[in-house]
Design brief:
With 242 residues, this protein is of the alpha+beta class. It is 44% helix and 19% strand. It has 9 helices and 10 strands. α5 packs antiparallel against α6.
């Protein structure tokens, strides 16, 4: 049922969706597709691109430099849109690669704009969610520019936990996480060796353990204080909630 999907949980945190709005959202879920890990579903510079809603699995958005170096801009989890900006700008300014095998719903620009015209509150929810995603990208810039490696890692793991909690996939105890140390390195501007060292530092400090695909918060509050983590920038609650 559409009501129990990660997307509805996410958008429902911004706007209390009515039955007609849920029906319009369900109508978008016509074209289901699957993609295997490691093979781009959106390429940088690609035009005439559809958008996708990630139903299952994880993906990453990245920019590739001419010399082959990669900077991961963000990771996408169930409930996230993929390539939404691309269909509005008509060209993709980044690539999207599945981190795991994924299942998505493909959405054409015309269908999305029709849904927004029919249900303005749904458009409001998507805009609000996109604004929160932009706020997270700003935090990622602060991570790379001003936080040291340990603070950077701690802040990133806490943010992922908050995002996953919103769609029912995490608690303050922890969450399943398929990210490798190489992916973390590309996202945080570190080497994989440095990532390993920092994770060990945080584990030995009794704050968080990342092992065998699971992030366990050993002391959530201590980790939040250490990272100076203020979740206000990703909190959907506010005076505009409709």
């Amino acid at each position: 049922m559409i009501e129990n999907t990660p997307l509805v949980r996410k958008l429902g945190a911004f706007v209390a969706l009515s039955a007609p709005e849920l029906a319009v959202l369900a109508s978008l879920h016509k074209r289901r597709r699957t993609f295997v890990a490691g093979r781009d579903l959106v390429r940088q510079g690609q035009s005439d691109q559809a958008a996708y809603i990630l139903a299952n699995g994880w993906a990453c958005s990245y920019k590739l430099l001419e010399d082959g170096r990669r900077q991961i801009v963000d990771f996408q989890i169930p409930g996230d849109f993929l390539g939404l900006r691309s269909i509005l700008l008509h060209v993709s300014d980044h690539s999207i690669e599945p981190v795991t095998d994924i299942e998505v719903t493909e959405i054409l620009a015309a269908d999305l704009l029709t849904a927004f015209a029919q249900t303005p509150r749904l458009a409001t929810a998507v805009l609000w969610a996109a604004s929160r995603d932009e706020a997270m990208v700003v935090e990622h810039l602060v991570d790379i520019g001003r936080r040291d490696a340990a603070e950077r890692m701690a802040h990133f793991l806490l943010e992922l936990g908050g995002r996953l909690t919103l769609v029912g996939l995490a608690t303050k105890a922890g969450y399943a996480c398929p990210l490798t140390q190489y992916l973390l390195a590309d996202a945080l501007g570190l080497s994989s060796v440095h990532v390993n060292r920092v994770l060990r530092q945080l584990r030995e400090a009794g704050m968080v353990t990342f092992r065998e695909g699971f992030v366990a918060f050993d002391d959530y509050d201590k980790l939040a204080v250490f990272a100076k983590f203020d979740p206000t920038y990703m909190d959907p609650r506010g005076p505009l909630l409709l």
